[in-house]
Write a structure and sequence with these properties.
The chain has two domains: 32 residues, no CATH class; 39 residues, no CATH class. Helix content is 59%, strand content 0%. InterPro entries: Arc_rbn_hlx_hlx, RelB/DinJ. This is Type II toxin-antitoxin system RelB/DinJ family antitoxin.
């Protein structure tokens, strides 16, 4: 007996450059998933947004942002009273890197 709550599923077959697929497989693995799941996520968002969906990424920018957010939540921040203090601090950091 077919479960009435179970939706019918269609198969989607696409052709893609071999190297691009291998690269995408590796990125999906880094993100903890696989290509079929990502394609399903893409299609669901495409329908929800009625256009191109969000762009998830495994780039270092995402991990750096997560690290920065963790620092803020943990109180590991430097506070400034005005823009001059901020720029002075940035200049000192730049000077110490270039020494």
């Amino acid at each position: 007996m077919i479960n009435p709550n179970q939706q019918a599923k269609d198969r989607l077959t696409i052709r893609v450059n071999h190297q691009r697929k291998q690269d995408a497989d590796a990125i999906a693995k880094e993100m903890g998933t696989d290509l079929p799941n990502l394609v399903n996520i893409f299609i669901a968002q495409l329908v929800k947004e009625s256009g191109l969906p969000f762009k998830p990424t495994a780039s270092s920018a995402v991990s750096e942002l997560n690290e920065a957010l963790a620092d803020v939540k943990a109180g590991r921040v430097t506070k400034f009273n005005n823009a001059d203090e901020l720029f002075s601090h940035l200049q000192k950091l730049d000077d110490s890197v270039n020494d």
